[in-house]
Amino acid sequence: MTSNEIRIDRRTAVVGAGAIAAAAALAGCSTYGNDSGAAAEVAPPADGPAGALAKTSDVPVGGGVIVGDTVITQPTAGTFVGLSATCTHAGCKVAKIADGTINCPCHGSRFGLDGSVSSGPAARPLPPKPVRVEGDSIVQG
Fold it and tell me: Which SUPFAM superfamilies does the annotation name (predicted)?
């Protein structure tokens, strides 16, 4: 063997190929659907009634926010909708609301502001969660 030849045994090749495949899979799953927009997650308001999730002013018309395990949208002015933040495809938490859709980062499912499926792989809508307006707050129930 000359100094320019490299010898690789079968074990080294299999281990190396497995490590490359695992790294590629992790990189692909962690970045699918990400874009540079801001996250929709907000903290519940410190002031307000018990069970307050957000202020009505926090929820843009034609958009929404994510508070814990609840998505709150405002499809039209003054109409607030509560939905589960758990994607119906594989149980991932939705991560962003942009351009009129609620977006799951795991496999790219998109839901309308009413929870309906806009694009899969999810086949079922986001389940509703009851919310109501009390003063300037949106509360559970």
Answer: ISP domain
